[in-house]
Amino acid sequence: MQKIVIIGNGISGVTAARHIRKKSDAELLIISDETPYFFSRTALMYVFMGHMRKQDIKPYEDWFWKKNRIDLLQDYVSGIKASDSELSLQSGKKIKFDKLIIATGSKPNKFGWPGQDLKGVQGLYSMQDLDNLTKRADEIQRAVIVGGGLIGVELAEMLVSRGIEVVFLVRENRFWGSVLPVEEGNLISNHIQKHHIDLRFNTELDQIFGDENGVVNEIITKDGERISCQFVGLTAGVSPNVEWLKNSAINIDRGIVVNQYFETNLPNIYAIGDCAQFQVPVEGRKNIEQVWYTGRIMGETLAATLTGNRKAYQPGPWFNSAKFFDIEYQTYGNVNANRAANELDFYWQHPTKEIAIHLVWEKSNEIFIGINVFGLRMRHELFNQWLKTKVHIDEVMANLRIANFDPEFYKRYENEILDSFNLQTGKNIRLLKQKWWQKVLG
Amino acid sequence: MKLVKNIGLVIFLIGLGIFTVLPFIGGVKLSDEMMRNILTESELNNLENRFEKEIIDIDFTSSYGFGSAVKGIYDDVNEEFRANKQWDKVMHTSPKEFSLKLAKVAAYGPVKDNKFAFFLLSFGLAILGAFIFILTDLKLKGPPGIKNDGIYHDPNTSRGWIGMITAAWLIGFYLLLYIAPYGIVNMIFVVEPVKWLFVEGGEASQWFLYGFMYTISMTIMGVRMIIKYRHNKYQIVRTISVVFFQFVFAFLLVEILPLFDLPGKDLKNAWPLDYSFLFDWNVKGLIENGTFGRFVFVWSILLSVIIVPTLVYFYGKRWYCSWVCGCGGLAETVGDPFRQLSNKKLWSWKMERWMIHLVLVFAIIMTIFTGYHTYNEIYGGPEMQDKHILFGFSAYNIREVYGFFIGTIFAGVIGTGFYPILGNRSWCRFGCPLAAYMGIVQRFKSRFRITTNGGQCISCGNCSTYCEQGIDVRAYAQKGQNIVRASCVGCGVCSAVCPRGVLKLENGPEKGRFGNEGPIVLGNDGFQLNV
Ligand SMILES: Cc1cc2nc3c(=O)[nH]c(=O)nc-3n(C[C@H](O)[C@H](O)[C@H](O)COP(=O)(O)OP(=O)(O)OC[C@H]3O[C@@H](n4cnc5c(N)ncnc54)[C@H](O)[C@@H]3O)c2cc1C
Ligand code: SF4
Ligand code: SF4
Asked: How many contacts, defined by CB atoms under 8 Å, are there between A and B?
């Protein structure tokens, strides 16, 4: 029987294993060093904040793996000998494979700041990071977070929930400025400040200092400002976790270089998830994708290939979501931080509430390109359909009510949004009733 | 503000403390004269001798001691009659009610003399303190949003020591209430001033005390619920509804209807949750009450047979469980801090399906027996009177067993007393026969579902954790499937705590209500989705 070995029990590796098992009887082994069982990395913050316990963030019960004949091994893979199809583990064990899937995820970026390895300086990625932070939490009065992205804001929320004062250093002039347009960036920045976070824009970390015990006690910014603190969170992005492959024959760039079938330069070795880097990215997408959803899609797709149904990576239209303290965010399609020359856009924000919508469409033919929503929920299925069939922006606007996914009894803003849209564009779009869509999707 | 909150807590605890020590204040002493006034002639004949020796003029320090002694004698004497086959002499009053009646008359002390003052000291302080404690959250907990910080660090909500004390208190209270109500006469006295609002100088029963506590706790904790979930309008509307139904239908109307000589029935209580519906005394009481009584009888049948399944078809069982029901209402308000404690394991789901459906079967069988008996009582000729044996079993016995094990122990002691241990809906999930009935309709013939928003789930597990019914919501959501489960009470909390806005409770066409049935989640164009 063929033996498929997977390194990494994150969403990518686990999804691949599950879908292979659905179609095949191959022997399956997942080797991972972090935790014995798969857990949801996206939920780490909720354990720290006391919303859940560690056992609650495991999406499958422990018996699941045995029942599905997926063997688990907690160990660290220290080397790959591709010519012998053999892995060497930290414990000294050797493991043979017929097919190898590398799904080793990412590592927090550290840009060589002096003092970055002091005690109390860490990223937020792994279970160990969570444990370290939990252990120190009671000793922290003030924390500095470096890097204004999704993990940074989660870390801020975590720390504030324990009554810790947070100074948040952001390189851009607004929160998540590399992704969010100005309007949204300001909306979220204001909200973060409402939660009593000392948000410093255009500020970068220079050095970190520690006390005689090697514990952080101060940082200095590039502008020379000193901030005393007992904790520094490094959340300036993540990079593929491929360091350990440096001496192997596998082709590495920033990540493990793969084609659209997740094949590396070596036969029978594949890479998926955060650690993979596409030689040629899918059109309109990045060559390294580091989100939950893409890891899942890659796992599903590779599983098909390995069970005899060769499929290229073909993610549908881009989508993502996040939450910034109390503001939910969803996005479908592409909304760039800076609008491109061939695009038009429409932004609406509630005069008092933290609710906003941002739509972008093609200038020439008015085809809908993307949407950001804040404090509103939209139906994925419908936007997926619209983006794939390239509908006109007017159709999107006329169907906003149907596209809405807010819970029952929520106040609806379609009329206000549409009035404002008509005013800006000089169009006269009216809302469509729910009927036709119910027939299509219901 | 934190200080104000703590002051509220202290006031609440003082009130609760005073309430808790009420049974130990004052004493009970039955005089000869009292005995002769209360007991019927035959009771007097049967009990006088032993009462004179063991009860009369003896100063009991607590009503529990007094009541137990009275009940002991009563049971002994009856036992003796039965042993001697003196059937005509056996007394049929319930021993605990008998003891309660005597204890109420014979009790003395400051509580009985100052009912209103002690009402203020116990209920008054507890209510005031609770409101202060809860209202400060408006400021302390920051802007509207998910408020689950620290739930698993808090010794109350994570099966810690406070939770265990809370459980012990609740279980103790329930046991006294159901099994030894004579132990809590002082607690009954302090709510009498509330009873006087309805009946001048009226006497309260232990059920009035319970109903009042129930309604007040639901109201206060309903306010807490609204503050906590104020980011979610569904929760606000639903909480107002469930508190309204408790307040008006289960409390006010039950008190007010009898003032007009009408049956004090809780009109929203549907069979088979209302298991005494076909008991002889209930049917007789309704039928003998004239037009309104008959209306109530017909209404009860309509409710169970037509209204319940129809509304479940259109809206899911949530319309009852989370919007109307008293048990559900208590779970959703008082029980909200404990919802995460429900078991999510697969084995508990299996156990749930067995248990709840067995209870439903039991309820149906019990109802058939009592129906047979009641029919004979009312329509049977003289020779059928009191015919209560069917297939060799007595309707009296069956309904007694059901009433004790299901009605008292399961619904009451375990259902509520175990909130801090088993979560807030263990009765609704494992025991309620009405829930079982509606669950079958909801699973197979209903427009209700929880829609999963495409591929947006990040498998974080908040939904499953906070599902009081122990449904592993995440298991469906992460596959892009809709959630259609018999046990879902539509509380909407999974949707309210999902950090990615993935879940939406909806009513819609039956076609496609299960959503994506394939293994691949939306967002992957390499595959055809069955949506
Ligand atoms: C705090 C946080 C919040 C996030 N929130 C979101 C979100 O809301 N939405 C979203 O889309 N994405 C989110 N992400 C990103 C998302 O979690 C990742 O993209 C995803 O987990 C990557 O999955 P993976 O399977 O590729 O790798 P990982 O989950 O990183 O799994 C890789 C595993 O392999 C192990 N491993 C590595 N090297 C070896 C080795 N040599 N031997 C043995 N084992 C090894 C690692 O220890 C790890 O357990 C978040 C990430 C973090 C850290
Ligand atoms: S699935 Fe959701 S709505 Fe249904 S009972 Fe559970 S938490 Fe409530
Ligand atoms: S549905 Fe929401 S709460 Fe549930 S696991 Fe998915 S993201 Fe988390």
From this structure: 172
Going by alpha carbons, the residue nearest to atom 4 of ligand 3 is: B463
Using pLDDT thresholds of 50, 70 and 90, give the confidence band for residue A8: very high
Is the minimum CB–CB distance between B495 and chain A shorter than 8 Å? yes
Show which of B430, B455, B472 is a domain's final residue.
Answer: B430
Please write the tens of the pLDDT for every residue from A352-373: 999 999 999 999 999 999 999 9
Q: Which chain A positions have a beta carbon within 8 Å of B323's beta carbon?
A: none
Compute the distance between CA of residue A210 and CA of residue A198 in angstroms, rounded to an integer.
22
Residues B482 and B423 in one domain: no
The residue nearest atom 8 of ligand 3, judged by CA position, is B460
Please work out whether the CB of residue B474 comes within 6 Å of at least one atom of ligand 3.
yes
Please report whether residue B467 resides in a domain. yes
- Model pLDDT for residues B505-522, shown as the tens digit of each residue: 999 888 888 887 777 888
> SS3 sequence, B130-195?
HHHHHHCHHHHCCCCCCCCCCHHHCCCCCCCHHHHHHHHHHHHHHHHHHHCHHHHHHHHHHCHHHH
Instruction: Report the C-alpha gap between B219 and B240 in whole angstroms.
Output: 9
Q: Specify if B420 maps to a domain.
A: yes
Q: What residue numbers bound the domain in which B354 lies?
A: 346-430
A380, B523: Cβ pair inside 8 Å? yes
Show the ligand 1 pocket: residues with CB < 6 angstroms.
Answer: A 7-13, 31-34, 41-42, 44, 76-77, 103-106, 124-125, 151, 154, 241, 244, 273-274, 290-293, 295, 322; B 458
Please check whether residue A384 touches B, CB under 8 A.
Answer: yes
| Sheet with strand A269-271: strands edge to edge | A70-74, A27-32, A3-7, A99-102, A269-271
pLDDT of residue A439: 44
Average pLDDT of chain A to the nearest whole number: 95
Nearest CA to CA, how far is B236 from chain A (Å)?
9
Q: Is the pLDDT score of B318 beyond 80?
A: yes
Number of C-alpha atoms within 13 angstroms, CB side, residue A239? 11
ipTM at complex level: 0.94
**CA A258–ligand 1 middle distance (angstroms):** 18
Of A12-26, A276-290, B266-280, B474-488, give the lowest mean pLDDT range. Answer: B266-280
Name the domain boundary from B108, B131, B150: B108
